[in-house]
Write a structure and sequence with these properties.
It is a single chain. By secondary structure, the chain is mainly α. The protein is about 45% helix and about 5% strand. The strands form 6 sheets. The protein has a 3-stranded antiparallel beta sheet with strand order 5-6-7. A 3-stranded antiparallel beta sheet has the order 12-13-14, with no helix packed on it. A two-stranded antiparallel ribbon has the order 1-2. Helix 5 runs parallel beside helix 20 and helix 17 packs antiparallel against helix 18. It is globular. Keywords: Endoplasmic reticulum, Glycoprotein, Glycosidase, Hydrolase, Membrane, Signal-anchor, Transmembrane, Transmembrane helix, Unfolded protein response. One of its GO terms (molecular function) is mannosyl-oligosaccharide 1,2-alpha-mannosidase activity.
Amino acid sequence: MQWRSIVVALVVLRLTVSCLLWLAFGLGPSWGFNFPLNFNFNLHKIELFKQDDGESAKANSWSQRLHGHGDAQCRTSCASKEDSPKKSYLSLFEGDRDEYDRRYSSFPDTLKIKMKGMAKDMFYFGYDNYMKYAFPEDELNPIDCQGRGPDVLNPSNININDVLGNYSLTLIDTLDTLLVLGNVSEFHRAVKLVIDTVSFDKDSTVQVFEANIRILGSLISAHILLTDPKHPFGNVGLEDYDNELLHLAHDLAVRLLPAFENTSTGIPYPRVNLKSGVPPDSINETCTAGAGSLLVEFGILSRLIGDSTFEWVARRAVRALWKLRSNETGLLGNVVNIQTGQWVSKQSGLGAGMDSFYEYLLKSYILFGEKEDYRMFQASYESIQNHLRRGRESCNEGEGDPPLYVNVNMFNGQIMNTWIDSLQAFFPGLLVLNGDVEEAICLHAFYYAIWKRFGALPERYNWQLQAPDVLFYPLRPELVESTYLLYQATKNPFYLHVGMDILESLEKNSVDSLRHSLLCDEDRGE
């Protein structure tokens, strides 16, 4: 079946380290989808390396388009001086074109080997320390080298409790990465550990969305890798394996099903207790992405076990959200009441709370071939282009700023603020999957320019002030996935260099700093 042959490539993309490894080597599958892709482009058309001349923005610049909607949309960030020069984000690339042409025109094999070694070292630094100091807890607290699970003393700490559920999250989430690294023996050992030690019969309240993408998706992908007769990573079958990972995935999904019960709209509750179901004090509000990004995993599970229940409830949630879109703009909001169907947050954008809703529409179509999914995606994409996109009409030529996708009111398309968030960096990759490679190239340059400037993507970036609004970076993989997909679409070595830049930034700002601060072996007297 089509979905079975494609699913391995998609689920593996979820992990940042996996994507970085592929980028370092230029490896990965060639893409063949149900719709034509045009991969012809000329990198020189994108003036990545042209310094801005300091002239005022043209008539179709972001700033003038913003002001054209009236002062009401300018309240959050109009402190920037109107008479100050408006520089394109492309000016963040320093140096002349010849220098960059020379640098990005090739990616030598010796450099690929070096990057492969660095990526492996970074992965095993995290994995080995987790197994040594944290397993079977969910994750390693890297500062004190101790394991960490849910915050039982503070149930309202949803940043921790939405994700951690006392089910060895890190081990499950790294199963497929071990195969990408070619470590079949450790993959087998990890699978056996999961089978022997993991149970979901826990008094843990977790977010349905997080449990789905991290745990359910990882179990399903590892099961497929073990049993797929096409052997995408070689014959990695485990002797005496009896579908135990699939049984665990089924058990978890059953425990998530109460979220879909007793809702007037069919949109699920955001959280469930794995032992007792929906908590009595559960809120009736959920975000569009959280409720509408379950179809890939639930749909694959239904097909693997021959039970349509899981795909049915996930599709019902997507359809319910779809019915609530604005009649005027076709846009959806960010947060909805699952009982009344009223929008609690009317902001529409491509970032937090909405991002994966669009992603799952297209990827579900690629996996399952259901035309309904692509019709919804096409209609969403048209609304996004009509109401969220700012900048010049053509990505690579013409007057004004290159394209930018902003946050707007779902009912009238007016700009609500002047920030974007790092989750939006997934969108260039989705553009590639939809065949819009030229637009993907240009938009990707925006996020990469920010990365080059700060060594990471700020959680929120104010595009009018050209400065971060929220200063931290929680190791999000979206820009990596977009870079990977653009390299696969174009085979241009520029994107291998982008991958190297990202990898070296992570090594410098995350791994290397931890190596100097961890209270591990020598500090603990071991």
